[in-house]
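[agent] plan:
  1. take the single chain provided in the ticket
  2. run structure prediction with default settings
  3. attach structure tokens to the ticket
  4. add a short note for the reviewer (M.T.)
[agent] executing step 1
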Amino acid sequence: MTVITELRLRTVLVVALAASVLCALVGVTGSHAATPAKTRAYVAIGNTLAGPLVVNNRGYVLFTFTKNRRKQNRCVKIKGCMIDWPPVTTIGKPIAGPGIDPSLLGSIPYKGKLRQVTYAGYPLDTYKFAASAESSVTNIGIKQFGGPWDALTAAGKTIG
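[agent] step 2 finished; step 3 output follows
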């Protein structure tokens, strides 16, 4: 290997490492997560590595807590749960993107004018620590706060 080729390879590796660290930091800060909505939430069916699933406008898989009841969020009553699993919130009716059945998309009261988005009656959440939209599928079935977190199909069926 020539010195120039070795130097290029090292440069590529350093850039890749820096990008990985940056992605991890972005995931840890939750920049992709649902922050208090100032507008209507957007929900679509995305082609993920786990198949077509309910995702947000940035392609991150959206989750539902198996301890939830339809149209009732139990995570809100568990210390720390809402920090790791921020709710998908909206002001007004959420927007049904491609693949979403508008009759399955709804919302439940959350805080003040904010509402938590639901699909097939299941309250939707993001995962604060997902490093990227592509890798967010690895969080399907994570067991935290007393139960697993599942993803949803276009038909509103849970997978975990």
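[agent] step 4 note for reviewer: The chain has one domain: 32-159.
[agent] ticket updated
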